[in-house]
């Protein structure tokens, strides 16, 4: 008897080019199966693509390295047959009486044929649809089965014009497929257009009755104290007799360990005719004050386990289904004050700060591990929304699972972009894909696949374009709201008995989320579809705060630079790509950056915009080499993106309701618009965003020089104070002030004072500003923000000589090792002598010395809390308790230095400990999660940094600390 449930078929696959096999699918799955990975057969990547398989077998070079992609034959030149491939595997499945088995493809690209033990099935066209085949009657009695799949590329792969362009020649827009594959201004073309079995393949074994696509919906009454869970599903009876079923619904919550608590349990009797599929709706399940699911920064992401089982009389359990579910209500309307789209979650307005997303990997090398890192990175940046751009994917359930866990709201677009569906050069087809019915079939199936995820917040017709009228109207109909979800106000006008009526909200295809026809309509950009998103280039940081920077309430795309660290450049390019741009002075006084051809190919955006923005790297002096250029670029990345988000937050609710940055990452080794690179190494912009987007944040308005506190939370803060201190390059503190007894209302920006130091006669040309918001009662730091600033019209060139400073540090480290996972806690203190100023009272020094306490990792419990530096013994004892299972005690490293001053722009990195390595070899261990990085410490100040990473087998990690004036990459661990 086969085991009930799903078995994923993700190993043991072989692949071969169709033209090199010379056999049909019947032969391959009966008398002539491949013997193994011998020509023309090779080990295959499934899920994955043809190009991914060719790269794995080293038959083509890595297309993400240097100019390698130019050496790979494009489908426009090779013809579709070149990338038409067979995929083959075997699987075990031996059934007993009344068991049934389905073969499932969650997605393929673009069409194909399936053969199981000599029997043929058709994989119909469309990249975003599921395929399920009942193979019960064609399995071998001995349980040994053969599966061959022939995959055809998209029908209209298109050609790549010599000048490139958005979506190439736009032909891919005629198919229902991802459009980025013909290249964009941030992406090179994908040569096989992502042909392959790119998503999960599985078999599912059930009894005579199968559960299909349950739909879960929660409705709320009495200010979220009275909640109902609505559930509708389909039951398919695969037998030839009437199935008398007991249908069970269980809702539980996880407690300690493997213990769970059942919150609700009900059983219903259902009769299903032979060979039929019936829809069944459970009576609404009542909950009193359940734990709600909140977005990142607003509360916990509470999830309940919803399980459904069907028992058939005379058989027993026939099928089961389970899904984590979050009770939450998402609303969005056009805000009258700003004209921007205003989102509410559980009745609370949420100021949107997030990013645009294409996909994890351009070759569709998607995995749970990668998805978790991607989404956790976004949560670490304090983002609360991800927009899945219309030229990319309908994202996978694993993506949504981690968005559920980490609290990222998702804006999901369908597969329309203006570039491929109505404009461009040449002008593309405005009528969308050729087959509108296929588009709608894929859309409907995508809705059913994703609708149970609490993170899914919004459906949008397309990017910078609306779908054709018939598709748009059909999507509106599919996604019409149930009456319970139509009002943005309280439900006072609706009957409390509505939950018990036959029009149950779970009977809708979705019914709970608003549908917007395009990314620049109805509260986004100017709301009318005109091109009012962007800009996408380097900006003067102070401009983000000015009235005329962006005129509309919600910007769905604003982008900028994103050069990674030098190690990534060396790891992804040959030495000729390590040449930094030439800086060419123009007659108007601005600098033009001229980059090398490899950087151009990887879509580099300069750090200057001649005529508008002076080169932001040159502000720090001439870049000497790649290391110097990239380090200065990180300084700019930090300032650029912190200013962007702080500028938007400064006008929260008065001018803006949200902003999405273009983009958070690159699906390949690109050199623009990213907070972490394709190798998963963060840029300093990552930490600039993390700082600026914290829920309660103290900041400097770079246009007015007012100190402000942004409170995006629902709580009022009282008895808090803001500490402002200025530090010069000599380690002195010429300005220090504490603004006490503040009252910070919820959802408001509070003006504290103007920072007048730059207007004083004694102001230094370059100086540091440290802002801290803290509780007066216990000196706990709520928000910390560090700036490096120059006087108007100046630059940062004095920081070049500041590199020679030797600022003493004391770093205490403790490690906990569990299997391959390392959790490291670093306590870093600037040991410089503090200035003896009368203005530095004991209370204020406690605030100045408070350690950073942000807990960056949900899996790290008991992280050290904010602790004054004069309580080091207490801190270290707590560290020892947290890491009590560690093999070693605390390790202390002290760096020599007789200078006093700011320890500037320090960052940790993790490497494999190797005595000898080749030039350009990347020894970094990635990914790494840091509670903070690219941080600075004033004299006497301390900070705790938490670090978490996994180490490959047989590798010993080495944690190093680098800094602007901290040299030699000191090994701390």
From TrEMBL:
<comment type="similarity">
    <text>Belongs to the glycosyl hydrolase 2 family.</text>
</comment>
<feature type="domain" description="Mannosidase Ig/CBM-like">
    <location>
        <begin position="705"/>
        <end position="790"/>
    </location>
</feature>
<dbReference type="InterPro" id="IPR013783">
    <property type="entry name" value="Ig-like_fold"/>
</dbReference>
<dbReference type="InterPro" id="IPR041351">
    <property type="entry name" value="Ig_GlcNase"/>
</dbReference>
<dbReference type="Pfam" id="PF02836">
    <property type="entry name" value="Glyco_hydro_2_C"/>
</dbReference>
<dbReference type="InterPro" id="IPR023232">
    <property type="entry name" value="Glyco_hydro_2_AS"/>
</dbReference>
<dbReference type="InterPro" id="IPR041447">
    <property type="entry name" value="Mannosidase_ig"/>
</dbReference>
<dbReference type="Pfam" id="PF22666">
    <property type="entry name" value="Glyco_hydro_2_N2"/>
</dbReference>
<dbReference type="Pfam" id="PF17786">
    <property type="entry name" value="Mannosidase_ig"/>
</dbReference>
<feature type="domain" description="Exo-beta-D-glucosaminidase Ig-fold">
    <location>
        <begin position="898"/>
        <end position="965"/>
    </location>
</feature>
<dbReference type="InterPro" id="IPR054593">
    <property type="entry name" value="Beta-mannosidase-like_N2"/>
</dbReference>
<dbReference type="InterPro" id="IPR043534">
    <property type="entry name" value="EBDG/EBM"/>
</dbReference>
<dbReference type="InterPro" id="IPR008979">
    <property type="entry name" value="Galactose-bd-like_sf"/>
</dbReference>
<dbReference type="Pfam" id="PF18368">
    <property type="entry name" value="Ig_GlcNase"/>
</dbReference>
<dbReference type="GO" id="GO:0005975">
    <property type="term" value="P:carbohydrate metabolic process"/>
</dbReference>
<feature type="domain" description="Glycoside hydrolase family 2 catalytic">
    <location>
        <begin position="341"/>
        <end position="473"/>
    </location>
</feature>
<dbReference type="InterPro" id="IPR006102">
    <property type="entry name" value="Ig-like_GH2"/>
</dbReference>
<feature type="domain" description="Glycoside hydrolase family 2 immunoglobulin-like beta-sandwich">
    <location>
        <begin position="211"/>
        <end position="328"/>
    </location>
</feature>
<feature type="domain" description="Beta-mannosidase-like galactose-binding">
    <location>
        <begin position="40"/>
        <end position="198"/>
    </location>
</feature>
<keyword id="KW-0326">Glycosidase</keyword>
<keyword id="KW-0378">Hydrolase</keyword>
<dbReference type="GO" id="GO:0004553">
    <property type="term" value="F:hydrolase activity, hydrolyzing O-glycosyl compounds"/>
</dbReference>
<dbReference type="InterPro" id="IPR006103">
    <property type="entry name" value="Glyco_hydro_2_cat"/>
</dbReference>
<dbReference type="InterPro" id="IPR036156">
    <property type="entry name" value="Beta-gal/glucu_dom_sf"/>
</dbReference>
<protein>
    <recommendedName>
        <fullName>Mannosylglycoprotein endo-beta-mannosidase</fullName>
    </recommendedName>
</protein>
<dbReference type="Pfam" id="PF00703">
    <property type="entry name" value="Glyco_hydro_2"/>
</dbReference>
<dbReference type="InterPro" id="IPR017853">
    <property type="entry name" value="GH"/>
</dbReference>
């Amino acid at each position: 008897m086969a085991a009930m449930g799903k078995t994923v078929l993700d190993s043991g696959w072989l692949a071969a080019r169709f033209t090199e096999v010379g056999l049909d699918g019947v032969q391959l799955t009966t008398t002539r199966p491949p013997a193994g990975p011998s020509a023309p057969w090779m080990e295959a990547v499934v899920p994955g693509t043809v190009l991914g398989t060719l790269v794995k077998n080293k038959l083509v070079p890595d297309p993400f390295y240097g100019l390698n992609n130019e050496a790979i034959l494009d489908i426009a030149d090779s013809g579709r047959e070149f990338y038409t491939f067979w995929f083959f595997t075997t699987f075990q499945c031996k059934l007993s009486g009344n068991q049934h088995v389905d073969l499932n493809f969650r997605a393929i690209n673009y069409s194909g044929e399936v053969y199981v033990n000599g029997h043929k099935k058709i994989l119909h066209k469309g990249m975003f649809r599921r395929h399920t085949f009942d193979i019960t009657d064609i399995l071998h009695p001995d349980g040994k089965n053969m599966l061959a799949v022939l995959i055809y590329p998209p029908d209209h792969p298109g050609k790549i014009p010599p000048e490139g362009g958005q979506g190439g020649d736009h032909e891919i827009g005629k198919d229902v497929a991802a459009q980025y594959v013909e290249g964009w201004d941030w992406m090179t073309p994908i040569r096989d257009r992502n042909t392959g079995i790119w998503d999960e393949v599985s078999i599912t074994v059930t009894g005579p009755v199968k559960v299909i696509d349950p739909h879960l919906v929660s409705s709320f009454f009495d200010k979220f104290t009275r909640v109902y869970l609505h559930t509708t599903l389909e039951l398919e009876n695969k037998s030839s007799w009437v199935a008398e079923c007991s249908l069970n619904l269980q809702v539980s919550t996880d407690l300690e360990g493997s213990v769970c608590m059942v919150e609700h349990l009900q059983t219903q009797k259902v009769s299903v005719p032979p060979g039929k599929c019936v829809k069944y709706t459970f009576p609404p399940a009542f909950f009193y004050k359940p734990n709600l699911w909140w977005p990142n920064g607003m509360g916990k992401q509470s999830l309940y386990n919803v399980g459904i089982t069907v028992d058939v009389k005379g058989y027993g359990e026939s099928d089961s289904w389970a899904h984590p579910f979050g009770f939450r209500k998402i609303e969005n309307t056009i805000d009258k004050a700003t004209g921007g789209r205003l989102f509410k979650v559980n009745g609370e307005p949420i100021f949107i700060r997030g990013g645009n997303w294409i996909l994890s990997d351009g070759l569709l090398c998607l995995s749970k591990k990668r998805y978790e890192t991607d989404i956790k990175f976004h949560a670490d940046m304090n983002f609360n929304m991800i927009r899945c751009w219309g030229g990319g994917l309908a994202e996978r359930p694993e993506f949504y699972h981690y968005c559920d866990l980490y609290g990222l709201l998702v804006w999901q677009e369908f597969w329309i972009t203006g570039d491929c569906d109505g404009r461009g050069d040449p002008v593309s087809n405005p009528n969308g894909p050729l087959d509108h019915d296929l588009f709608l079939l894929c859309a409907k199936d995508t809705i059913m696949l994703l609708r149970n995820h609490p993170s899914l917040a919004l459906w949008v017709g397309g990017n910078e374009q609306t779908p054709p009228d018939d598709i748009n109207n059909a999507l509106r109909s599919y996604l019409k709201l149930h009456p319970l979800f139509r009002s943005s106000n309280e439900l006072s006008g609706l009957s409390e008995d509505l939950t018990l009526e036959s029009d149950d909200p779970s009977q809708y295809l979705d019914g709970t989320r608003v549908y917007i026809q395009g990314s620049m309509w109805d509260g986004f950009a100017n709301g009318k579809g005109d091109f009012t998103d962007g800009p996408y280039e380097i900006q003067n940081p102070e401009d983000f705060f000015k009235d005329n920077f962006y005129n509309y309430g919600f910007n769905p795309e604003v982008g900028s630079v994103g050069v990674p660290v030098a190690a990534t450049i060396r790891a992804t390019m040959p030495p000729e790509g390590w040449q930094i741009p030439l800086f060419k002075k123009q007659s108007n006084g601005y600098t033009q950056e001229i980059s090398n051809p490899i950087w151009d190919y990887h879509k580099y955006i300069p750090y200057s915009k001649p005529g508008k923005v002076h080169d932001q790297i040159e502000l720090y002096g001439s870049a000497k080499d790649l290391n110097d250029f990239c380090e200065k670029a990180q300084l700019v990345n930090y300032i650029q993106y912190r200013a962007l988000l702080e500028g938007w937050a400064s006008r929260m609710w008065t001018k803006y309701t949200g902003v999405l940055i273009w983009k958070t990452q690159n699906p390949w080794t690109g050199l623009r618009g990213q907070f972490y690179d394709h190798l998963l190494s963060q840029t300093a912009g990552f930490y600039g965003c993390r700082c600026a987007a914290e829920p309660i944040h103290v900041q400097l308005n770079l246009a007015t020089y007012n100190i402000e506190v942004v409170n995006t939370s629902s709580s009022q803060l009282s008895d808090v104070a803001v500490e402002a201190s200025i530090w010069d390059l000599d380690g002195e503190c010429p300005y220090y002030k504490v603004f006490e007894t503040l009252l910070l209302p919820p959802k408001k920006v509070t003006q504290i004072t103007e920072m007048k130091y730059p207007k004083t006669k004694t102001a230094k040309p370059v100086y540091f500003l440290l802002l801290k918001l803290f509780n007066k009662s216990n000196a706990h730091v709520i928000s910390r923000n560090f700036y490096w600033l120059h006087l108007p019209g100046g630059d940062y060139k004095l920081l070049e000589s500041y590199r020679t400073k030797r600022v003493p540090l004391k770093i205490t480290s403790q490690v906990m090792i569990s299997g391959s996972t390392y959790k490291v806690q670093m306590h870093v203190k600037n040991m410089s002598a503090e200035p003896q100023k009368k203005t530095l009272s004991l209370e204020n020094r406690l605030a100045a010395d408070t350690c950073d306490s942000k807990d960056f990792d949900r899996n790290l419990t008991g992280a050290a809390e904010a602790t004054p530096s004069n309580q080091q013994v207490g801190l270290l004892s707590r560290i020892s308790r947290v890491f009590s299972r560690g093999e070693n005690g605390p390790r202390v490293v002290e760096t020599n230095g007789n200078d006093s001053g700011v320890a500037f722009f320090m960052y940790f990195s993790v490497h494999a400990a190797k005595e000898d390595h080749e030039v350009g070899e990347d020894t970094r261990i990635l990914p790494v999660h840091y509670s903070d990085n690219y941080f600075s410490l004033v004299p006497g100040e301390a900070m705790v940094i938490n670090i978490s990473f996994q180490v490959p087998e047989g590798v010993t990690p080495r944690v190093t600390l680098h800094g602007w004036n901290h040299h030699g990459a000191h090994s701390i661990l």
